[in-house]
Fold these 3 entries.
Entry 1:
Amino acid sequence: VHSGASGLGLLSAAPAAGALCTVMTTGWLRRAHRLGRIVMLAVAAWGAAITVAGLLGVFWAPVLLLAVAGDADAVSAICRSEIVQSTTPDHLRGRVGSASSMVVAGSPYIGDLEAGAVGAAFTPQVSFVGGGLLCLAGIGAVALAFPELWALDSAHGALPDVRAPSTPVAAPQG
């Protein structure tokens, strides 16, 4: 899709617009219990939206699909954060949260590098479609390798309570 600088701006802003709409309407997630399933479906929705956006040659359809991808990414991020916070022992929460933040902050740049390299070597369409298909294959592999993530259900106590037991701190002997 050749759309010039303003088109590039719309394509670049579409995921953020989708994410903003999601963040403003995520009240339903507070009642959600199958967070692992929601994460996996959101990742699959992102991959599918990217794949279809790459296949379509008209301008507005990819803009809308990129907004859907941004929506799915926001849902996934919210649920992943809740899973990390609720399954990490208290004494490790800061370290695990920091590591998670670094992965979340750095991963898109790795994806951008891959997308640019594939787009330069082949075409932007190959980059879009290939990236979306790799995402779908990746989430399929995760689903097969980690079925407990799909089964994660906070309503039935399936979120493990791994927090360290609180033990009183002994006063120093003097």
Note: The first helix runs from residue 4 to 23.
Entry 2:
Amino acid sequence: PDPSVTEVPLAVSLPETLQPARVVGIVRETPGTVTVHFTTTPRLQHRAGQYVLLEFRFGTSRYRRAYSLSSLPSDEVHAVTVRLQPGGKISQYINTSLAVGDGFQVSPARGEFVLPDSRAGRQFVFVAGGVGIAPVLPLLQTLLALPQPPPVALLYYSRHADDIVFRDRLDALA
């Protein structure tokens, strides 16, 4: 083997620190996107912009998928927003079969796409497309809720007007 090449494992072993979650609401955002509202006990701690792993079990098979949290840390319930992926077993299940009262497992929040602790004198520009707005919206809401919000800009793209995720919420922030 070439010593200058670093091999990266294709599969990463993930810690089994999952906790039960229960679906308390499902909102159809676009024809192919839903927001799943869920609760956990104890309450999931997170920062705006982070993601979680959701685990679904079907028979003896377990499926884990990463989804950005689209809820604020202060919200009573947590939320992830999922776009239907062609051929995607889990995104199809979430978009077409998951129901209020259903359970799944959720990991602790992860990720470094969070706001810096020091925001003084900063300006923020966010770029998102489609469901990629999911982690960005809580970041925008956090900044705009500050007593003296910093300058914030969002460039958001969607292929069609019907596919704008969180349209009403984004309009309210404008």
Note: Strands lie at 19-30, 33-40, 51-58, 61-68, 78-83, 103-106, 124-129, 152-157.
Entry 3:
Amino acid sequence: AYRQAAFKEHVGGFFDKIKDEPYAYVRRETAIKRFLHGAKRQGYFLILTTNSFCDFATFLMEACFGADWRSLFGIVVSNAHKPAFFHSKADLVGVDVEAMVETPLGPAETAASGHHARGSVHALERDLAQHMALKRVLYFGDHVHGDVFPLEGHPTWFAAAVVEELFTNEDVEN
């Protein structure tokens, strides 16, 4: 069974291979980075939501987009428990990005920016509404049933589906 500490401990056959040779599995994405900057200029608020724990998500995002990857997103939510993230009412918790651990949010803290974990889209929208006039959210997902369909009922959220199966082997080689 998967343990949260597996990435940090460099064990399990999956994480250790990716950590040892990240660019055998991940590629630097300058075109997508430009796209994200363009979406921000067009007024979209970008949210990254992943079921991965903060340490693994950070590792992959740094490999893809560089050390400044967090600047691409208004909010990052790791360990999101999708698709339940879209249906529950759970509050978000904070993430200490130096120690790579989840931390409780203080009573006056909200998820207006930064890196958070768990929670729900309802808690996120509530916290964002208190701090900004949210018009359009651009949300990326890689699972149609877990990421894209649950956005129904959230009219200001727009989904961009990332579907690797549409790529050919030739696309991957280039």
Note: The longest strand covers residues 44-49.
